[in-house]
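Q: Sequence in, structure out?
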Amino acid sequence: MGGGRRGLRRWRRALMRCAGGDVVFSNAVDIFNQCPAGCFLFNLTCSQCAAGSYNGLSGRSSCTPCPAGTSNPSLGRASCSPCANGTYSGLGQPSCSDCPSGSYCPYECGSPVICPAGSYCPAKSGTPVKCDLGFLCSQEGLPQQLLCPSGHYCPSSVQDVPCPAGTFSSATGGCSGVFNRVVACNRARVLLPAHSARRS
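A: Exactly. Output:
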């Protein structure tokens, strides 16, 4: 019984010491000398799990890479933390990376998602941003919304249509010339020569 208590005390000391470095055991068979969570046992030595990995159980011989969408920047961790909105990580990463422009990264994202048509995605986006009226987002992977081209109108964020005959557009953003916010065209005005007007 006394030996069991001494073994338990040694295990508790190992538990406290593993967070600060390696712990060497004299008897690998002793159940009380198992490595605690956050560490792994190899050749009678209990060592901390590396950054980007974890071990949630005691007495294990290896650590597990952090799953995609999570990270762990520290040594000797028993778990990994999920990536925040606008960031992502692959398997076994010590930190989450910012989401690139043209893509979005929701919570606990393992890989950037291409921005869908009808939306745009600046860098560090957690969700796509809907394209505004008078702008065009007809392609996937746009980092910013585009003005509806001159000579066209945009009835939706994924469609630009040439101005019909008898109408015109002299500015981008739509065919009425109202900057950025319109979806119609102005009617063209035809000016007759002065002598033609007198004859009528």
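The helical segments are 2-18, 194-199.
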